User: Which sequence fits this backbone?
């Protein structure tokens, strides 16, 4: 309501003072995040980060002297709602580009709208199918699940733990992880000896772990988002399972350590570099962006920025740099996005091209381990 | 299948089952006093956990004060719920009341989400996390707490319903509301009591499971449904039958996940629910026309 009133006032002003105000009119960018609902753990930090970085950009003079205006809508994680809101952003708010949505399901639903209306969409969700095959108007900032799997498998290969048990959550995130885990196993000489799942709301996974304990597995890989993996860590400790336990990047935040408590010790997981920003060597090209993001987030929200928020930070900064290099039309933003080279953001170093709209390499993930309630980088 | 594994599956199942049992008994107490299924029962479980967390972390109270406070506040919520949502309706049919409880559960969940947050939280175990070995299987001290508290509460229930005046009055309402009213029992007050007792029990269940399963504003839905299953298996009895129902459900889930496939864990619970409703609607242990309290 307030946003609408505000845009009405802006519209009125621009009619009244057409000549003077027009040059300084803000550039409108739309954003769709799942701020409420089951994917709120993604949407909330994403919205916070996007607002924060737009504020910071405007404070330091905007882009080419023009302010950015972020129009944010909450999709509640619902693809139908996401499609309606995307249309609204394009038709009513007349945005030049859209950031989000937060989940792969929503993004897939919004893609046809963006393609038809020719508005660039920079998604914050991880699903590989978003940019494979490449769609002309669609980019993404979240790392592919496949890169995370690759990071774990490389380490398993190095420590010669080649018989693994996988335990994945039965939702979109888990099944995408499970597909990748199975698809990449042979390439790394890994054998999956036990393949189990658990429900997102399950409260006891000792049955699955008992089964795994009796199998020939040398390591366990668990793929899920909080709270399931924390329950699994606790259950594994209860059962005295001594196998090395690997988690996904879905739990790469301090929250996981809080929830799992002592049971988190020694657990390894692939994570975006933001988690260990202060531990990175100064030579790391992402360090400057990472430290700025962490510091700003702490200042604005008194909380730690996580890599989910980082996806939105990357999206805004990518669009900003596209605006700096070209005009403010949707077409120009798209073309400039595609030319992005060596942009060191939060999720990794982005190199988009006509054949690659995901833009990240395997250096986007580091393997971290929980030690004394904090993270260390596994070499 | 090794014996060790079976033992572990059964132990895990018993401890999960005890939670279902406690929630299930809450369902049946209200059902017996009012004839409605209170679908907000799961939300009181959530309130127990979240309130304990609130008293522990926000108010900085020690655990032994936080727990009774949380039980008191969730009982108060049960009281308010009955007063504000159930009692004002005159001549309401059970189906109306059931729908009101569903609305109530959505309301309570929404308010909790706004009051606290959407995150999952854990609260510390009552007496440490060192596993206890039984043969080659292990359980946690918290599991013993859950089993002990469930048995204690069922014991107190039994005493209340059979050896106190107000408990007997509540049983009288269950047999025949009209007749109970005619002999001078305040039926409305009994309904209020039933809501208070079952919200207190829900709260206790939420508190004792939170160290194991963690708690969030939305944990009530699935726990409530599992508790409902337990109550159905037990034929809506508020005594041992529902407890056995909960334990059976827990063990079958755990064995199913361990031996058949973990993907079917929830399916097992709901298939049992359907079978019971079709084949033995009076519950696993009930006779066709049985005493229900």
Assistant:
């Amino acid at each position: 309501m307030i946003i609408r009133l505000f845009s009405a006032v802006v519209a009125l002003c621009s009619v009244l003072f057409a000549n003077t105000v027009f040059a300084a009119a803000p550039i409108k960018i739309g954003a769709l995040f799942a701020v409420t609902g089951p994917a709120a753990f993604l949407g909330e930090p994403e919205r916070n980060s996007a607002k924060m970085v737009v504020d910071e950009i405007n404070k330091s003079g905007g882009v080419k002297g023009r302010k950015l205006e972020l129009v944010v809508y909450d999709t509640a994680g619902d693809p139908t709602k996401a499609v309606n809101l995307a249309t609204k952003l394009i038709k009513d708010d007349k945005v030049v580009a859209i950031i989000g949505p937060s989940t792969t399901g929503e993004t897939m639903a919004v893609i046809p709208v963006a393609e038809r209306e020719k508005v660039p969409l920079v998604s914050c969700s991880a699903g590989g199918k978003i940019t494979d095959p490449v769609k002309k108007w669609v980019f993404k900032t979240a790392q592919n699940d496949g890169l995370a799997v690759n990071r774990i498998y490389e380490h398993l290969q190095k420590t010669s733990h080649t018989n693994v048990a996988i335990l994945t959550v039965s939702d979109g995130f888990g099944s995408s992880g499970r597909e990748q885990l199975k698809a990449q196993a042979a390439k790394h000489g890994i054998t999956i000896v036990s393949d189990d799942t658990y429900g997102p709301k399950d409260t006891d996974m000792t049955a699955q772990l008992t089964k795994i304990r009796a199998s020939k597995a040398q390591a366990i890989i668990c793929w899920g988002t909080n709270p399931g993996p924390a329950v699994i860590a606790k259950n594994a400790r209860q059962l005295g399972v001594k196998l090395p336990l690997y988690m996904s990047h879905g739990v790469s935040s301090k929250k996981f350590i809080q929830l799992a408590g002592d049971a988190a010790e020694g657990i390894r997981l692939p994570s975006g570099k933001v988690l260990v920003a202060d531990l990175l060597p100064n030579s790391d090209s992402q360090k400057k962006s990472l430290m700025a993001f962490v510091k700003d987030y702490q200042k604005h929200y008194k909380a730690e920025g996580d890599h989910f928020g980082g996806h939105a930070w990357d999206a805004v900064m990518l669009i900003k740099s596209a605006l700096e290099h070209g005009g403010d039309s949707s077409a120009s933003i798209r073309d400039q996005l595609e030319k992005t080279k060596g942009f060191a953001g939060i999720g990794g170093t982005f190199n988009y091209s006509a054949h690659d709209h995901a833009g990240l390499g395997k250096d986007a993930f580091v393997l971290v381990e929980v030690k004394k309630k904090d993270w260390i980088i596994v070499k | 299948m090794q014996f060790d594994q079976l033992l572990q599956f059964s132990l895990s199942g018993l401890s999960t089952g005890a939670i279902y049992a406690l929630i299930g008994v809450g369902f049946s107490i209200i059902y017996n006093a009012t004839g409605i299924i209170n679908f907000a029962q799961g939300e009181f479980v959530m309130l127990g956990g979240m309130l304990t967390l609130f008293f522990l972390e926000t108010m900085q109270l020690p655990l032994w004060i936080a727990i009774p406070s949380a039980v008191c506040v969730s009982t108060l919520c049960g009281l308010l719920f009955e007063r504000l949502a159930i009692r004002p309706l005159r001549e309401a049919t059970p189906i109306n009341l059931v729908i009101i409880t569903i609305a109530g559960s959505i309301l309570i969940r929404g308010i909790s989400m706004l009051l606290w947050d959407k995150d999952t939280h854990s609260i510390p175990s009552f007496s440490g996390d060192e596993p206890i070995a039984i043969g080659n299987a292990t359980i946690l001290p918290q599991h013993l707490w859950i089993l002990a508290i469930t048995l204690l509460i069922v014991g107190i229930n039994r005493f209340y319903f059979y050896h106190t005046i107000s408990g007997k009055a509540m049983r009288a309402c269950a047999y025949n509301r009209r007749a109970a009213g005619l002999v001078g029992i305040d039926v409305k007050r009994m309904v209020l009591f039933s809501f208070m007792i079952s919200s207190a029990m829900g709260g206790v269940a939420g508190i004792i499971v939170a160290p194991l399963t963690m708690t969030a504003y939305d944990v009530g839905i699935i726990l409530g449904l599992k508790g409902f299953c337990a109550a159905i298996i037990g034929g809506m009895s508020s005594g041992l039958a529902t407890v056995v129902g909960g334990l059976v459900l827990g063990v079958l889930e755990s064995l199913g996940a361990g031996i058949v496939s973990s993907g079917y864990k929830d399916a097992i619970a709901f298939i049992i629910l359907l079978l019971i409703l079709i084949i033995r609607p009076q519950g696993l242990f009930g006779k066709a026309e049985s005493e229900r309290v």
User: Anything to note?
Assistant: Chain A touches chain B through 34 residues (CB under 8 Å). Residues 146-275+365-377 of chain A form a domain with the Rossmann fold fold (CATH 3.40.50.2300). Chain A has two domains: 2-145+288-363, 146-275+365-377.
